Structure formats: C-alpha cells, structure tokens
Amino acid sequence: MAFSIAHSWSSMPLPLLQTSPENPKPIPPIWFPSTRRFLRSSRSASTVSSLAALSCSASMAESPVEAATIRDICGGKVPEHILQRAEELGYHRPTDVQQKSLPVLLSGRDCVLHAQTGSGKTLAYLLLIFSVTNFQRSAVQGLIVVPTRELGMQVTKVARMLAAKSVDSGNISRACTIMALLDGGMLKRHKSWLKAEPPEIVVATIGSLSQMLERHAFKLEALRVLVVDEVDFMFNSSKQVSALKKLLTSYSTIENRQTVFASASIPQHNRFLYDCIQHKWTRSDVVHIHVNSIEPMPSHLHHGFVICSKMERLGVLLHLIQRDAPRSGIIFVSEQSEKSKKSGRPPSAALLFDFLKDSYDGDLEVILFEEDMNFNARATSLSDMRQRGFLLVATDLASRGFDLPQTTHIYNFDLPRTAVNYLHRSGRTGRLPFSTERCSVASLITSEERFVLQRFENELLFQCEALLP
Ligand SMILES: Nc1ncnc2c1ncn2[C@@H]1O[C@H](COP(=O)(O)OP(=O)(O)OP(=O)(O)O)[C@@H](O)[C@H]1O
C-alpha cells in the first residue's frame, strides 16, 4: 500500500526530536512509514545521527543575527540592482523570518521556512533565488511551486517587481525573465517560449509544471533553487502530492539543487523534517527555521465570536460589517458539498454574495471568489480587489497566500473545518509586518459549534471573545 503523507502527518505518533542543546531529550525510536512501526535497528541508528545533525542546525537558526537592514544581510550576495529595487519597494528592515533565514539560505543550506502568515517568507526565498541566478544564462535556475494560480500570479508579480531593472554586464543588457506557468494559462504558448528561450525563473502550479516536464518542454538540469510554497497544503492535497514527489526526486535531485519549503503551518513539523531526509526531498542537514513557535498567529489580531442560529446569520453578519466599517474585509464560506452540487442548489458563497449585493449599502465593492468560477472570472475579481476597498465573499481558495494588506476584517460565516484553516483564513489580515494596527477575525457560530472554536483556541493558542450580547 502506498504510504500517504497526508495520513501520516495527521495521525502517526511522532517521536520528538532534540531541538536545543540546553533542553536535551533522549532521541526516541524512529517511526518507519514503510513498515509502519518504530525501529531501533542499525538503520535507525544512522537516521538518529542525521537527526542529531538536523537539531544542531535548528538551534543554529535560532541564534539571533545582528543585522540592521536587508542590505546588511544580503550585500555582496544578492545583486546590487535587486537590492536597490527592494529598497525602492520599501523593503529596508528585515522581518523576523528574513533576519533569521537569509543568512542560512544564502549559505546554501536547504531550509524549511516556518513562520506566521504575513511574515515575509516570499521576499526571503526570492532574494535567495536572485542571489544564485546567472542573468546571462538562458536556463531555468529558480523554480517556485505554488498550490493555486492566484498565489502564483502574486509571487510572479513580486519577483518581476524586484527584477524590474535590466542588468548591465559590459555591453550586454539583459533583463531577468520570469515565467508564470499556472493552471488556466496558455500552455501551448508557454511551451514554445520555454523551448525557444527558457526563462531564468519559473513560478508554477504543479499540474502545469508536470505537463511541461512530461512533454519535455524544458529540463531542470540548470536548476539551483527549488521552492515549494504552502508545502503542508501541497502534501495534503491528493491531487498534487504524487506530482510533487516526482518533482522532488525524479525531475531534479537534492545533489543539484537547494530546496526550500515554506508555510505558516507545518503540522507535526519534526515528522515532516524526518520525512524530508528519509525520502531525499532535502539534504540531511536541512535547517528548520521556526519563527514565533509559541505564537502561531500574529499577536495584533483580535478574535471574536457571535452565537446565533443559522437563520439569523445573514442579519448578524450585516450588522457586524456595518458596525466595524472595515477598510476591506473577507467573508469566508464553506465550499459547496458534492451532494449539494448534485441537488442543483446554488453554492452558499453565491447566495451570500447576492444577499450582500442587495443589502449592504456601504462604500466597499462586494466581490465573489470561489472554485466554481472560471479562471477569467477569478482574475477579474482579483483585479477589482486591487482597485478599491472590497468585501470579498470567498471559499478557502482565498485562504492561502493571498496578500491583500488593506484587509482589516475577516468574517467566518461558516467555521473552517480545521485549526490550520482557521490560521490561514485569519492570516489574510494583519499583513503589514511592522504595523500594530488591530485587525479582527469574527466567527459566526451556533451554540453547538462553540466547542469547535474552543478547540481551535487551544490548538492555536489564542483567545476568542463574545462580540455581541
Ligand atoms: N522587509 C519587509 N518590509 C516591509 N514589508 C514587507 C517586508 N517583507 C515583506 N513585506 C510585506 O509583508 C506582506 C506579507 O509578506 P508575504 O506575502 O511574503 O508573507 P508570507 O510570510 O508569505 O505569508 P503567508 O504565509 O500568508 O503566505 C507583503 O505585503 C509584503 O510586501
């Protein structure tokens, strides 16, 4: 039976690793997924030594790095024109995750970047890619894999903004090319482009990337850095996991590339690190950069709830929006079940969207964003959001990676299914790294759902207040 990562992360007992020399714990037996049992054999002994190497690296990453600016950390490694551009875009002071990860990333080590939503992981891995890219060489050297088209568009935009200036080398002037190879894109056109003149950097969804690799549209022989963003989501997605594993071990190998995994949530991260080494997704001295491990969500978020019946929810939501007057807000709704689709019922996101269109009379634009919309309609929604203040009605499709810094309020019209989903939904607000502006997350729940929210509070270490009497 094939071993499922999704299953193993969520339900396997995990031996804790020694994570710091000051807090030594005996290294327990190792869980072997293939045999589905703990082993103490010689094979286990060799794994223990690689885990010990890994735990030293982890503590190394935790030691504070004295640096005042991004330029101080990256100077001499990241090309000057990229650093200048980063400064023009307002990136001077590093965020915590950038301060801790950049020295390790720039030293060539494989890394698992594990830090709060909105903490600036994207800039950290992009600076690494620019530091190793030879702008004179037309070959794919940096590859970023993302779970959704929209996140891919966002990462591509930031990368292009950073690379906006052309590079002068003697008389040759050449701009760095960044290709977005995303689901719903024009793959035929991309195939010709890839063959004629490969870009230096590709941002891809795994489906489109696999198609191109299978059709031999390009090779990864010049690949220097592979980033997998929202890595826990990708490994948990039955649609994406096998293609991702193939990319990690067949289309390219750890001997030839530096590997970076990023996410705000890596459930059972020690187990994941173990799997990285065991399955050769990363080298054995991979570093786990875990920022704010005792506070999984940004501290300036205020969490509240209102207990109401399903019938009352629309009215309560409207009341909250009118009372809060958000700068922009996102209202999360559950994805429609297959059963409800088959019965021909409209999705609740669409119903809520229609309700707000009719009943909300404020200044914000009401916008819909959900799975069943085609890619063009989703793109139109995204561009509408960037133009002005919005009230976005969305499914969890919008909960990962979306960077809309003007979002001040999140409303859970339906409770998310898991604490991890709660974390990512909440992380769509409070995305200005050095701001202490209070942003809020409100959940509309029935009295029976209170215990579910309490479970999220315990798991994610936050407190939720009752909002209305
Ligand atoms: N050094 C910096 N100075 C100022 N702003 C920054 C800096 N680094 C990143 N940002 C901004 O912070 C916001 C969040 O960054 P980013 O999207 O990289 O977060 P993330 O860690 O990837 O979050 P998520 O896990 O939710 O995807 C972006 O708007 C980005 O422009």
TrEMBL record:
Sequence ranges assigned to domain Helicase ATP-binding in this UniProt record: 102-284
Catalytic activity: ATP + H2O = ADP + phosphate + H(+)
Keywords assigned by UniProt, alphabetized: ATP-binding, Helicase, Hydrolase, Nucleotide-binding
PROSITE patterns: HELICASE_ATP_BIND_1, HELICASE_CTER
SMART domains listed in its UniProt record: DEXDc, HELICc
Annotated EC: 3.6.4.13
A UniProt-annotated Pfam family: Helicase_C
SUPFAM superfamilies linked to this entry: P-loop containing nucleoside triphosphate hydrolases
PANTHER family according to UniProt: ATP-DEPENDENT RNA HELICASE DDX6_DHH1, DEAD-BOX ATP-DEPENDENT RNA HELICASE 47, MITOCHONDRIAL
Name this polypeptide is given: RNA helicase
Protein species of origin: Platanthera guangdongensis
